[in-house]
Amino acid sequence: MGVTNSLERALALLELLEQTPGGLRNAEISRELKIPRSTCSYIAARLEQKGYLRREEGTQRYQIGLKTVALAHGALRELGFRTMAEPVLYRLASDTGMSAGIGVLQQGRVLLVDRVEGPGFVREVVRRQIPRGRTREQRDIGREMNVHTTALGKVLLAFLPERQRTDLLRDLVLTRRTSKTIVSKAKLIAELAEVRRQGYATAEEEEYAGVRSLGAPIYDTARMVRAAVALNGSLTEPAWNNPAVLVEWIQEAAAEISKRSRFA
């Protein structure tokens, strides 16, 4: 029981720090996790010793260590299809001027497993003008996103087997991210039905103000949706003026990734 308890606390500590840019001191971690300071100090010290955490000398704040980065890259490598999909993502980004990414469903959340930035975004970064509403943390590969506010999430949720979708929706909390976020389950269910009918999903300023996304499903050989691909860009991107063309491109990209990947 003690080992399990310690393991659960260590995992909770890692998850807390992953969600806290800048890190936390031991007392703050202890307070957040509601565990004794001495216990917290012991667990953090062991994780630091193994490289899963690092501690800033001046502030004494614990932060995620590089060992976790190596684990994350190992997990992403095992997905297999990323290497096959990247040429398609680069082509999408080049043709549209927007960012292209791939996500998978994990424990009711979207996990971003690959992303290619569009030329417009790169130009803005070079000019030191970071796009509104899209910080580095929000763009990092490996981050988790809501299923109900993103095109990736809507695709993954819409094409789940009905029983799994019903179970996930039952426990899903529709957190409001912007004034346009869907917070009604009835409305979300209706939109998911439309996603299944048309074969793609859109999200209009539902996660970040001023940002629109368009996504399509990636299938395996059994015609089960295993991942999704999406385009993301500001509402002012010229490519949005031709929505029918974008839908065609994203669906063709999804079909090509399905064919190229280990899923096929």
How would you characterize this protein structure?
The model is unreliable at 130-139 (pLDDT under 50). This protein folds into two domains: 2-69, Winged helix-like DNA-binding domain superfamily/Winged helix DNA-binding domain (Arc Repressor Mutant, subunit A), CATH 1.10.10; 79-260, GAF domain (Beta-Lactamase), CATH 3.30.450. The longest helix has 18 residues, at 243-260. The strands form two sheets. It has a six-stranded antiparallel beta sheet, with helices on both faces. Strands 1-2 form a two-stranded antiparallel sheet. The chain is of the alpha+beta class. The chain has helices at 2-18, 26-33, 37-49, 66-78, 81-96, 119-126, 136-139, 151-158, 162-171, 185-198, 243-260, and strands at residues 53-55, 62-64, 99-106, 109-116, 144-145, 201-204, 211-219, 225-234. It is globular and about 60 Å long. The chain starts with a helix and ends with a helix. Strand 6 and strand 7 (211-219) form a beta hairpin.
How would you briefly describe this protein structure?
With 264 residues, this protein is an alpha+beta fold. It is built from 11 helices and 8 strands.
Strand runs, count? 8
How many domains?
2
Individual helix count: 11
- H/E order of the elements? HHHEEHHEEHHEHHHEEEH
User: Which range best describes the helical content: under 10%, 10-25%, 25-40%, 40-55%, 55-70% or over 70%?
Assistant: 40-55%
Distance between the termini: 43 Å
Q: Which runs of at least 5 residues are low in confidence (pLDDT < 50)?
A: 130-139
CATH class of the largest domain: Alpha Beta
The 3D shape can be described as globular
Largest sheet: 6 strands, antiparallel
Question: Strand order across the biggest sheet?
Answer: 5-4-3-8-7-6
